[in-house]
Amino acid sequence: MQRFSKVLFLALAIAIITGVLYLQDQKDRQRQRYERLTQEIDSLQEKIDSQKEIHKTTLKELSEAYNENDQLQRRLDKAKKDIDNVKHRNDELELILFNQRQTYRQAIAMRGAGMPVLTRSNFTAHQYERAWSRLGAGGLRGTGDALVRAEEAYGVNSLVLSAIAFLESAGGNSRLAREKNNLFGLGAGGSDPYRNALCFSSRNECIDYTARVLRYRYLSRGAQLHRGENLAAIGPNYAADPLWAEKVSRHMSLIARAAIPGGR
Question: Which pLDDT score, from 0 to 100, does residue 78 have?
Fold first, then answer.
């Protein structure tokens, strides 16, 4: 019996020791696995952190590239717009030069009487002021801007307007021009032409009024005084002188030569 007790005790001791050793072995295995997983996690975290830095750098580079491209696109769009503006301006200048040449050639060829009045001369205020200075028409100085504006507003050729004013006002020196700012002899008829003539607050007002009258009473189809679209058609209703259109035409030639010496 005593021997059996010893054997049982020894068996229990061996079982306990074996269990302890097994548990110790499992513990060691778990610790090693934990350490290995920890190392893997640390390694993965380093890779993640590294990728984040790379990603940040990439985003920054992409953002900088986008901003640079956006700036370049804006500069390109502005350059295209500038080119279009220059082309448009060149086209306008070409048209202005063409209109000037056409009007100039018609004028110096003494064909002004038959030239359509609703055409653009595109003469400049400076050119008219040069003409007044060269022709000694001191009474018309300062009217260049008004002549240009009238052409723009009503489409009436400003060289035609200037020639009518020059003829009717004797270069801006007539009594009507000096005392009533009436450059076109408007209303100066009947037994007392001076008294009947219209009075204007300024010569510029007179130019605007006359251009409007020519446009809407003489040159618009269906208008009361419309007989055609040139000076020869306007003359019979505008002036008593049968040679009025030819005289205006001669003054157109005179002014054109003085305004653009040598045709330039």
Answer: 73
Flag whether 189 is in a domain.
yes
- The mean pLDDT value for 14-18 works out to 71
Q: Is the pLDDT of residue 95 over 70?
A: no
Distance CA 146, CA 206 (A): 9
Instruction: Look at residue 165 and tell me if it is in a domain.
Output: yes
The neighbour count for residue 145, using CB atoms within 10 Å, is 15
Find out whether 83 and 235 touch, Cβ atoms under 8 Å. no
User: Using an 8 Å Cβ cutoff, are 176 and 194 in contact?
Assistant: yes
**More confident call, 181 vs 11:** 181
What CATH number is associated with residue 193? 1.10.530.10
Q: How many whole angstroms separate alpha carbon 252 and alpha carbon 111?
A: 9
Q: For residues 114 and 233, give the distance between their C-alpha atoms in angstroms, rounded to a whole number.
A: 9
Which pLDDT value is given to residue 91? 55
Q: What residues contact residue 204 under an 8 Å CB cut-off, 6+ apart? A: 143, 145, 146
- Where b means 16+ CB within 10 Å and e means fewer, 17-35 reads eeeeeeeeeeeeeeeeeee
Count other C-beta atoms under 10 Å from residue 157's C-beta.
Answer: 30
- Find out whether 205 and 180 touch, Cβ atoms under 8 Å: no
Q: How many domains does the chain have?
A: 1
Q: Let me know if residue 40 belongs to a domain.
A: no
Helices (H), 124-259: 125-135, 144-154, 158-169, 175-180, 193-196, 203-213, 231-238, 244-259
Quote the domain boundaries for residue 122: 92-263
- Number of other residues whose CB lies within 10 A of the CB of residue 251: 23
Query: Using the 8-state DSSP alphabet, how is residue 46 labeled?
Result: H
